[in-house]
Amino acid sequence: MLQWDVDSDYTQTGSNSNILVQNETIREEFNTLRFFPNSTQDNCYIVPAETQIIRYILRAGFYYGNYDGLSSPPTFNLFINDVKWATVNTSKNNGEPYYEEINYENNGSGFFKICLVQIKDGGLKIIYFRFDPLKFDEMYNRVWSKGVTPSNCDNFIGYTDVTATIENYPPYLVLMDSVQPTDTDTIILTVDLPQSAPQTAYFVFYVTELKEKSSIERRAMKLEIAGKYQGTVEAPSKGETAVITKYPVTVSGPTINIRLTRDKNSTLPPMIAGMEVFTKWDTGANHTDHSAAAAGVYITSAISLMIPFVFLLVA
To answer: At 115, which CATH number?
Structure first.
């Protein structure tokens, strides 16, 4: 069983507050937060780690929840051991809770220093941070979020074979819910990347067929990632899921488009249930300046070793 610990022993700055009742979520840990009104001081967590070199999965969850009633979600930078990890925009994911996750090898110092640094963009000078526990109800501890359905698509829910063993073990609730274009032949999905520079990405697509196809019907789609053709995907029989993996794919941020287009010999439009995207980039030398390059590690792979450390709960 996972054990939570309050965060007051790990940071000396900031104050606690509650999310407005009308904005509370079903995940109780997101209904309290710590905010940091003083952007001139170091707003950091010091979290214990092993003294030997070990690779950790670190996950940070963010939720503004309009706790202050100002409707002004802030943006700030997140650093780990004085190296930039990510830029956090709390309006991301339509303002709902979201996560930044990283697979990070510690330096044997016995602790992680995780800091939040204000971006001076005229926005609200308050920043928020929390750790989230690993979720063992999902085999690889992934957090699945429902993205925004493209404006030209509708959601379709149907049957999938819950007895089947699907590669990577995606949750069946993900596979039962797909998007399909209504009046065009194309699905365009947008993915945010952790940095703008070229980086190596690993893509996994899950295509579940929710329709009982006749003998003359076929669902096939051309796959493009960032404008580059990646082959044709054939949907399986009803209730089955095809898993398509593309690696390595070199991409550049801050965003890329994934395009699924009806193949010329397909009688049915494209359809997709879910996808996973992991990226990797190099650290280079360690830096002590908060303008340093992004932390050089893996954005966590679903099959990486999970090593929990301390789970912090904002009291």
So the answer is: 2.60.120
Q: Are residues 287 and 275 in the same domain?
A: no
Residue 142 within any structural domain of the chain:
no
CB of 192 closer than 8 Å to CB of 274:
no
Q: 69 exposed, middle or buried (CB, 10 Å; 0-12, 13-18, 19+)?
A: exposed
* Digitized pLDDT (tens) for each residue of the chain, 315 residues in all: 456 677 788 888 888 887 777 787 767 777 778 888 877 777 888 888 877 777 777 878 888 888 888 888 888 888 888 888 888 888 877 778 877 877 777 777 788 888 888 775 433 333 444 444 334 346 676 777 777 788 899 989 888 887 888 998 888 888 888 999 998 999 999 888 877 888 889 999 999 999 999 999 999 999 999 999 999 999 999 999 999 999 999 999 888 999 999 999 999 999 999 998 888 766 543 433 333 333 333 333 332 222 233 334 444
> What letter represents residue 182's amino acid?
T
Same domain flag for 294 and 268: no
Domain that holds residue 302: 4-133+283-313
Distance CA(74)–CA(42), nearest Å, equals 17
> Do 96 and 65 fall within a single domain?
yes
